[in-house]
Amino acid sequence: MFALSDADDVPVFSVPDPAPAAPKPQRAKTRCRTIEEDDLDAVIGLLRAGFANRSEAYWRRGLARHRAQDLPDGVPRYGYLVERDGEAVGVLLALYRVVEDAAGTHLRCNLSSWYVKPEFRSLGTLLDGFAMRDKAVTYVNVSPAPQTWAMHKARGFKTICAGQMLTLPILGRHRGRARAASPETLALLPEAEARLVADHVSYGCLGLVWSHGTTAGALLFQRRAIRVLPGRLGWLRFPGLQLVYHSPGLDLPACLGAVGRHLLLRRGMPWFVLDALERRADLPGRYFPGRAPKFARGPHPPMAGDLSYTEIVLFGA
Questions:
Q1: Which of these, 73, 106, 116, 212, is most buried using a 10 Å CB contact count?
Q2: Which pLDDT does position 237 carry in this prediction?
C-alpha cells in the first residue's frame, strides 16, 4: 500500500512489518563419553532394561568388584555411554585390566553388556567405534550374542574359543597333589598369580593349587549349571564347574588326575567344562563345537580358557 505526502505530492510507501521468522528447530545433541561414578544409577537402569533376567544387585556387585582393581590414569573405569540431549540412551561396559605375562605389561579390555534403547538403536555403532580406538589394547568378548559372531570377525576379531570340552578329570593321569587355595599353598605361586587367585576366591570361585616336586600351578573354577543334552532336553541342567583360569605354564593333562580326585572327594564333582579351540585329544571327555565361542582383537590375545577378571567371574552366574 502507499499514501500521498501533503508536502510534495510524492508517493510515500508504507511497508508492513515482516512476520517474525519461525524458530529453527533445535538439533538433538548426541555424544559418546566415558561412564563416571555419578552415571552408575542411569547405567544400571539401562542394563536392567536390556537384560531383564539380571537383578540390580547383580550389576552393582560386579561393578563394585571391578572398581577395586588398580588401573593406570586415562583408562575408563567402567566403559562408555551414549547421551541424547543429556539423557543416557546407550551403554557398553569396557572392563579394563592390567595384564602381566611373558610378553610384559599390557592392557586387556573385556567388552561387555551392550545395550541401546530401541528408538536410538542406530547410535549403537558410536559405542563400538569409540570403545575400540586404541590399537595397543587387546579387546575380548567372552559372551557375544550369536547374531554378532560374523560382525566380530568382520571387525578383525579372532576366535580364541570355538567350543567347550566336558571332561572327566578323574580319568586323567595321576601325578602330584591338588589342594585348596590357602595361605600355605598360595605361597608356592608367584606373587602376582597368588593375588589373582585370592581375588577370584573372594568372588566365589574355587581355587586349587597343584604341586609336584618344585613345580606348582593354579586352577580356578566357577560353579555353573551345565547343559549336555541337545534338542527338547536342552533345558536340563546339571551342577558342574567351569575352568576359568589356569597357570599359563601348567601342564593340564599331567595334573588332571590329581585335580579330578580332589574335585570328586572334596566337592562331589566328577566333571568340569573348559574352553577350547578344538577337541583336545589329551583330555578325556567330549567336545561340543560352537558352544560359547569367544573372540579377541589386539596384540596380546589371551589363551583359551583365561576368563580371569572378565564379566563371567566379576558378575557371576
A1: 116
A2: 79
